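Handout, section B. The chain below has 326 residues.
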Amino acid sequence: MLLRSLITFVINVSIVQHYAAAQAIAPSYDRVKDVIYGRSWGTSLTMDVFTPKANRNGVGLILVVSGGWYSSPDAINGNMMTWFIKPMTDRGYTVFAVCHGSAPRFTIPEAISDVNRAVRYIRYHAKDYSIDPDRLGIFGGSAGGHLSVTQGVNPLPPNEKSPDPVDKTSSAVQCVGCFFPPTDFLNYGAEGKMAVGAGGILLPFQASFDYRTFDDKVKKFVTVTDDQKIREITRNISPLYFVDPKDPPILVIHGDADVLVPYEQATRLMKKLEEAGVDHKLITKPGANHGWLGVEKDTLTIADWFDAKLLKKTPATTQATTTESK
């Protein structure tokens, strides 16, 4: 039940029932399904593209379709369109709903690589989608939030030696907005407590942390078992450690009673952003767990954030910390 709720990002069934009628309304966007943005070991990586029928603002938003690092095109339907996509297309944003290589087959480092590839593809084809390649935002919830923050603070460098021009394109984004993202898997809920392993909160998602390397001599994947190497990779997938003054504006919305992604993951990230002088904001949901009634209103708050940071070509220079309770 927990995995299913994470895949669809929101755990409260009553919200689904409340907004079921909205799905019957004629869409205000055109949708192109299963656009292949890359391949991973023979597996096609796809995204759905949602283009507003009117009042396009020239900005592209990347929705990371991920819950528990499970990612499926099936999750793009239903409540995800109601809560995450339609509010953005209604404001003129072109939305790219990106699926990455999914658990349990693929691990978090591979998902990070896939999202980088998606951003490169979107930027390279910006003219085809009538968007500004220098105004790209990214958003998601839970695992999708983690991948969004990671993309914001630690985009992978372009591969200048690749024969594919997409790989030579920047994967940097200009704004991040997300719900309850994990940010430090080495200190998860308490100092020195790993997110996985004995007693780890994310133990049910161990497959995503079963890191592997490709042994070119025997042409097969080998699971990483060395403790020091595991810690090194775990640090490398924790966005907290890559914050620097060049990072884009970041908004986090998080419940202070979250039992899956501890609230301190948000507060510690905010402290790092503050120290680096990065434009940031934390909105706290008092008493909220990993999802809450009224989440659609908070998606509008993320839309407001993107409006403020992306609708002008000149990035905001004000750097401040704002913590709100709602």
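Note. The first strand starts at residue 29 and ends at 40. Compare this with the example in section A.
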